């Protein structure tokens, strides 16, 4: 196996005409080989666990097997989605059709300073064809109307037009859709600074008539070291490229160019879920439309800077995803291709594992330390050997699947944010179609009852701190108090170490979020000077 991993690029032959496909082949072959090996070893490990589990504690044993099975299935689902990546040149494709384009900038009480710079950047967008910019103001602010008109943009407001503010951003975009006529619609969030070439880079891909939208890579201002992993390299540098390979890239809601015909074929932006991007992608794919991903940043915006903002944003994403999974399940959705069913289910399964499976694993050692019981009937050293082999091969496979994009940091954020993912999943059961939960926009200046932004950071991460401290302290307490055999403690310490490592990222980032680098400071980037 090591010989295969270490082969040089010259060993591989490639005749593909796809951009960067040949250069990526060595990484791809290693990732595929190690992924298959992980799946096979994982299958054996599941069999071993089913035999070795301690049946004296049937409830704990059942959930342990279930948790291991869920992790194995998540790896399989994710691997299928990342089997091959599709890259695109930064230059885009030549523009062959002169489309008329509308630019939608929806806003709802975002700081005027940020909105001003967003509009200024939008005014510099370059395009040889017809382009019309719309500011869609759901707060009905007179100063926003004056700002929009000062740039020559069209101003639309549901409050000022006596239209009810229903369905948040999706309803606002549909209001703009009814008031405009462009062939294509570029959507920009109110805190996103677009590059002048954003349309020229994306519009060439619309020559393929079955493409509903092209999503560009998202880029965000972050604190030094990106403590909350807002740049989401795994998603934007790996997952989206894998989905693009299957023509099922997801809309991220900003920096995305839609085809009006596609939107109108499904009745506009989908309004039944909280925000429109994921659900509109889902509906378009179910109606036979395809989507592309442009893996280069063409706009730059703001991301949450504290644990409250992260909770608000990530909890909303989890609730959105799980409402689809529960009330419009991918495996029951008519029109979806099999690969799309797998991809959408992977997102939901990742939230389920983050919310319930990973915390369960971290509670098992605590149970052993306090009770002296063990979850397995086989010798502890046997478990350490079998589980370590499975873990190491999976880690190697993940390294090549997510090459250079900090998969460890991504995992720590997924595991560390379990309280908000748990909350989102539980809430999803109470909000079927027709019963929509409340919505609180990011970076809005208006007070919102659902906002986590004003919660004390220490209070927000108490569950994570509890798991961290218990896994750190109880092994010593159990050893000195004679609550548990040393060999059982030794076997569980490995899991405790992973628990401490997983929880520490979010706890540290919440309490010490870090400083802005000078060139990254929003006050500088969005400055009017």
Largest sheet: 7 strands, mixed
Number of strands: 10
Q: What fraction of the residues are assigned to beta strands by DSSP?
A: 5-15%
Radius of gyration: 25 Å
Kindly report how far apart the N and C termini lie.
58 Å
Overall mean pLDDT: 92
H/E series, N to C? HHHEHEHEHEEHEEHEHHEEHHHHHHHHH
Number of helices: 19
* Class from helix and strand fractions: alpha/beta
- Which stretches of 5+ consecutive residues score pLDDT under 50? 1-11
Q: Estimate the helix proportion, in percent.
A: 40-55%
What is the 3D shape?
A: globular
Order of strands, widest sheet: 3-2-1-4-8-6-9
Characterization of this structure:
The termini are far apart. The longest helix is centred in the C-terminal third of the chain and has 34 residues, at 338-371. With 529 residues, this protein is of the alpha/beta class. The protein has helices at 2-5, 21-52, 58-81, 112-122, 142-150, 168-178, 198-202, 233-245, 260-265, 276-286, 307-327, 338-371, 380-401, 407-416, 418-428, 457-460, 462-481, 486-511, 522-525; strands at 101-107, 131-137, 154-156, 184-187, 193-194, 211-217, 220-221, 256-259, 290-297, 299-302. It is globular and about 75 Å long. The model is unreliable at 1-11 (pLDDT under 50). It has a 7-stranded mixed beta sheet, with helices on both faces. It has a 3-stranded mixed beta sheet with strand order 5-10-7. The chain is built from 19 helices and 10 strands.
């Amino acid at each position: 196996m090591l010989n295969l991993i270490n082969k040089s690029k010259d060993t591989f032959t490639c005749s593909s005409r796809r951009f960067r496909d040949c250069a990526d082949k060595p990484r791809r072959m290693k990732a595929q080989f190690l992924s298959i090996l992980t799946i096979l070893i994982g299958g054996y490990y599941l069999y071993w666990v089913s035999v070795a589990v301690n049946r004296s504690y049937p409830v704990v044993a059942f959930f342990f097997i279930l948790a291991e099975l869920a992790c194995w299935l998540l790896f399989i689902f994710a691997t299928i989605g990342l089997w091959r990546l599709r890259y695109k040149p930064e230059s885009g494709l030549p523009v062959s059709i002169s489309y008329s384009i509308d630019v939608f900038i929806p806003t709802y009480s975002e700081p005027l300073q940020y909105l001003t710079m967003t509009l200024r950047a939008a005014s510099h967008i370059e395009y040889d064809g017809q382009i019309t910019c719309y500011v869609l103001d759901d707060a009905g602010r007179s100063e926003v109307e004056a700002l929009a008109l000062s740039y020559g943009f069209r101003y639309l407001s549901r409050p000022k037009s006596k239209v009810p503010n229903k369905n948040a951003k999706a309803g606002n975009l549909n209001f703009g859709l009814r008031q405009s006529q462009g062939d294509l619609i570029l959507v920009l969030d109110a805190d996103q600074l677009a590059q002048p070439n954003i349309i020229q880079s994306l519009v060439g891909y619309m020559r393929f008539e079955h493409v509903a939208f092209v999503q560009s890579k998202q880029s965000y201002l972050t604190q030094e070291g990106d403590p909350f992993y807002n740049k989401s390299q795994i998603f934007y540098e790996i997952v989206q490229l894998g989905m693009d390979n299957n023509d099922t890239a997801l809309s991220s809601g900003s920096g995305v160019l839609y085809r009006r015909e596609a939107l109108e074929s499904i009745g506009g932006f989908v309004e039944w879920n909280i925000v429109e991007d994921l659900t509109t992608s889902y509906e378009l794919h179910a109606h036979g439309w395809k989507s592309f991903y442009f893996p280069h940043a063409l706009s730059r915006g703001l991301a949450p800077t504290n644990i409250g903002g992260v909770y608000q944003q990530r909890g909303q994403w989890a609730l959105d995803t799980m409402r689809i999974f529960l009330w419009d399940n991918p495996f029951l959705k008519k029109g979806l291709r099999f690969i799309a069913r797998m991809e959408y289910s992977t997102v939901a399964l990742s939230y389920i594992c983050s919310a319930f499976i990973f915390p369960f694993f971290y509670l098992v050692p605590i149970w052993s330390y306090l009770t002296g019981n063990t979850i397995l009937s086989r010798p502890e050293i046997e478990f350490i050997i079998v589980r370590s082999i499975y873990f190491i091969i999976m880690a190697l496979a993940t390294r090549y699947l997510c090459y250079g994009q900090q998969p460890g940091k991504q995992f720590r954020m997924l595991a560390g944010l379990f309280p908000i993912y748990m909350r989102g999943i539980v809430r999803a059961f109470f909000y079927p179609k027709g019963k929509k939960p409340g919505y609180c926009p990011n970076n809005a200046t208006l007070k919102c009852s659902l906002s986590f932004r004003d919660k004390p950071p220490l209070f927000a991460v108490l569950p994570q701190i509890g798991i961290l401290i218990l896994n750190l302290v109880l092994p010593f307490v159990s050893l000195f108090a004679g609550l548990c055999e040393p060999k059982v403690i030794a076997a569980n310490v490995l899991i405790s170490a992973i628990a401490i490592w997983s929880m520490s990222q979010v706890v540290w980032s919440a309490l010490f979020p870090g400083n802005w680098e000078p060139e990254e400071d929003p006050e500088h980037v969005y400055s009017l000077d």
